[in-house]
Structure formats: structure tokens, C-alpha cells
Design a protein that fits this description.
Strand content: 15-25%
Helix content: 25-40%
Number of strands: 12
Number of helices: 13
Radius of gyration: 22 Å
Strand order of the largest sheet: 3-2-1-4-5-6
Order of helices and strands: EHEEHHHEHEHEHHEHEHEHEHEHE
Length: about 350
Amino acid sequence: MKIAIILDNNVSKVQTTIFEHLKSRDLNLKVFIGERNKNDTSSIILDKIYLTHREELVNALSNPFKTINRLLKNRLKKLDYYFFSLKKALSDYDIVYTQDVSRSLYTISSLKKFYNYKIILRWWETIPYKWLFNERDTIIAKSSLKEVDIFIPASQKAKKSLLLAGIDESKIVHIYPAVDTQKFKPLSSNSIKDYYLEKFRIPKDKIIILFVGRLVSHKSIFTLIWTAKNLEKTLLSKIHFVIVGDGWDKELFKKIIKEMDLQKYFTLTGKIPYDEIQYIYQISDIFVLPSTLKVDIQEQFPYAVLEALSCGKPVIGSDVGGIPEAIGDAGIICPPQGII
């Protein structure tokens, strides 16, 4: 069986690990990586096929009439994901796997009429009809969801969002995400913890509260800053917050921490290679994910919670999206902004 994994420009080690464990079986797995992929893919052990703009242009110009028709059909720019390259590459595949409402889904759904492959769609979204907030997503959803053969929601809440959208339940197979428990596990030695505490100049005598994720507003790092200020006259001297990741709001968080005179209680490490993330969990005493509610975005199913739990760390998370399902009865679930 030949399986193509196409994830727009979001291919990462996290998203492909589950397939790496299938490689030893009688499956021919290929992951397609675009020229502008956002993540480091060097540690992915699957066979890789690289998609380039030059190759796409050459393939498109080989049939200018169809190219013009395709461009005229797509009244919005950037709807397709390497349409002509994938049309050439996917002729003998049995299954094409992708995620959510995306350019990849739009393209492989359009190409399905030429071939016999089945489309498997990993569904993360917990907000019903979220695609209606965005014109491009609306076009993709209306044209593509009907072509999907199997939906795999990542949480029960994601499954409910599909059912509310009218997806036939016979097409839905709920499977929770998983992490590699051989990689993410408690370590008996303190040497790794001591190494990273020294590397980031984090005091060794503090209770370390760790966040790992994108530094964007709905992750609600603000809540941790407000919590620190709230504890300034009581427990804060015993606590140090470590924020791991990068994102649009990083500089804003740094500015707020500085303006509130909390710099000595926070360490922002920036982005850390995924191959090191299992060690970062070891420095923490508590892992937190304080995501908040927004009308058009919610936490889906957080790998970071699973990784922290797998490393034996206590977890506190907010009652948002898929977080409660990830934590289950293994941690503390608070109302959004309830950690403060």
C-alpha cells in the first residue's frame, strides 16, 4: 500500500512520528515537503519528496490550457498546493493523508477525480463550522469535505464539531494523538536538568513552572504574567517561569514582563529543536497550558500536555478545546484565566 502524507508547509517531526512507527510494516510511506515548509524536517526518517516552485512552474507550463483553466477557477490566490506537481506524483498512490481545511485538502480533493486514491483527513478543529470565519476556508470546505473518505478527529470535541457540520458518522473514526513514551519519559538522573538550568541561567532553588508552545495570544501567556504579579508579595520569590517557544507575540510578552518589573522571574528561551524538547520537560516541576477562549480559535489537542505527562510532570491546563481530554484525570483543569 502506498501512502502520501501532504501537510501544506506544516510538515514537522511531531506530525509524522506516528507514521515513522508504521514504516517497518508493509507500507510505502512518502512525506511531501514544500519549498517554504515552516519546520525543520531533518530528523524525519520517512522517505521525503521535495516540492519546488521551479518544478511546479515547469509542470504547469507543460499544459498551458489546463493551467489557465485552473487559475481561472481559483478566483482567490494561493488556494492550491503544488497542484501540477502533485498531479504528476500521485498517480499510483492508494491513500493520501492530510489535515483540517487546508490548501493540501483543496488540491488533493481536486485531483481525486483523476485517480483512485482515498483521502484520510486528520481533524483537529474543535469549533464547528470554523471555516465560515474565512472566505478561503469556506471555499475549500464546500468543495473538498465531500471528497474525504475517512475523518479522524483528534478529540471527542473535534468529533462533535464534524457531526454538527453534517459529516456522516460512518465516515468518522476517532483516534486520540499519541507521543513516543520511549522518548518522553521520566529521567532518574538530574544531570540533564542541571545542564539546561545552567544553560539558561535559571536558579536551581526555584519551583520551575514550564510552558512549551507558540507565543500567540490565545495561548494566554498573559495569564502567567498576571499570576506572577499576583504572587509578587507572597510566593513569587520561590517560583521561576520558563517559556519555551516563539511566535508573533513574543516581543509583546517581553515588553509586558519588563514593564511589570518581573524579568528576574521569567526566562524566555526562544524556539528549541524538537529533538531537545524531551529534555526541557525535565527542568520543570509543573507544566502549564493556560490557553483562553476566542471566538475563532481554540486549543485543539495539545501534544505538549501529553509530552509533559509522559515525562511524569504535574500538569495544569484550562478548560478550553481539547485540553481537558488531553489531561483527563491526570492533572488540574481550570476555567480560562482561572490559574490567576
